[in-house]
Amino acid sequence: MYQESHGKGNDPMQSSESAGLRRNSIASPEKSIKQGVFNFNEMYKYGRKRRVDLNTIIQSYNMGPGYIDYVTDNGLKHSETLEKAYSKSQVEKSPSLYTCGKDIGNFRFPYCFGDFTYADKVNDKLS
Fold it and tell me: What distance separates the 2 farthest-apart alpha carbons in the chain?
């Protein structure tokens, strides 16, 4: 939750999209937390079934279950190289959607699908 919103706002887990809703459309922190925990649990179970490492599972909270599949097909171990490659593949599928706000100075550019540093940031908070 800290990585997503610092615990602020009505959707502190930024979990609307995982429920099939528009971004930030959950209007209740309680519903956001419930959906976020549900989503992470689903990613955890799916990741364990696919035999990927925990960092892949953490990253999949940000990039979705497709990232787990991508890592499964590319060595079973999360890495920045895989994060960027997966992000790039998603950007190429929907280039008008994933633009980093057309800000080429954005640290994610041109990997504008998700945050390829997400798992590292979450792990830094656990230290």
Answer: 39
Residue ranges in the chain modelled with pLDDT below 50:
none
Q: What is the DSSP letter of 99?
A: -
Cα 1 to chain center, whole Å? 12
| Domain 52-127 part of CATH 3.30.450.20 | no
- Tokens representing 43 are 């990613």
- Taking each helix axis as running N to C, give the angle between helix 29-50 and helix 54-63, from 0 to 180 degrees, rounded to the nearest 10: 130
Sequence-ordered strand ranges (E) for the chain: none
Angle in degrees, CA 54, 67, 39, rounded to 5? 70
The predicted pLDDT at position 41 comes to 98
pTM here is 0.93
What local confidence, expressed as pLDDT, does residue 127 receive? 78
Rounded to an integer, what distance in angstroms lies between the CA atom of residue 51 and that of residue 44?
Answer: 10
Q: Label residue 115 left, alpha or beta by phi (over 0 means left) and psi (-120 to 50 means alpha).
A: beta
The 3-state DSSP class for residue 56 equals helix
